[in-house]
Write the structure tokens for this entry.
Amino acid sequence: METPKTAEITAESTPSFIGNATAHSDWIAQLERRLDQCERLASVGELASTTTHEFNNLLMTILNYAKLGLRHKDEATRDKALQRILDAANRGAKITNLVLGLARSGATEFEPTNLIQVVDDTLVLLEKELQKYRIDIEREFTQAPLIEGSPSQLQRLLLNLITNARQAIRENGTIRIGIKYEAKTSTVALVVRDNGPGIPKDILPKIFDRFFTTKTGPDHSGKGGTGLGLSACKEIIDQHRGRIRVESTVGKGTAFTIRFPVSKPSESTANETGSAQLQSVPPQSNRSNQISTPT
């Protein structure tokens, strides 16, 4: 796993900005790349306790069934033991590949991506944590075309949204994840909805601001409190030319709806960054607070 590099700013490394706008822009771009790398590795670090516990359980499964196979000579018992060992090893390999994908640096590569598969892979990483806090996951998936995207970046997006939803609920709640194709706009909509306390309307327009947070620090799982999670989500959505809408009602919960353009075979690239700005939508009677990015 790649070790994060520390950005050291000194008088010698800081460019002279007077009459040197290009150097200034390059310097800012370099800092933004390093911040993105730190955010990516922070996501991996936050998974460390969860995945370590999961690997311990998998190793215990492998050890126990290996002992069972050695104790019993009959073919049926040994076949059962070997199958359980194989299942545990495959799950361990899947988790390892997913974590390595999150940690991998370099240019973001876009490809036709199955959003339902990305959701399922993300839930593999969060399964034990959600069980610990007694959070139920409800899937509402309909058949949808592929989108042009980066699976690892979309996984970061989902990790942040689902973790935020879990933290908002705290314990004993439900997170609904929906995916549907909207033919009228040729987009695939991803919805992450929780039944937590909701977000006050005066705070809602600020939630995607970098370093803005209402938390005092990380929770018991070591996650959150930096103010980087949702700002990273916004950047990922922009990179995928997506649009996001947030609806929240205090006392009832919050829903994040993200719409991604459908993958087109003729597209030579889907890596252009959008320039959508956040807007607050005035609340109406019997409606939740909302913010969205314009079309």
Q: What stands out?
A: Strands lie at 111-113, 135-141, 147-149, 173-182, 187-194, 243-249, 253-261, 279-281, 289-292. The helical segments are 21-46, 48-71, 75-103, 115-132, 151-169, 229-239. DSSP finds six helices and nine strands in the chain.
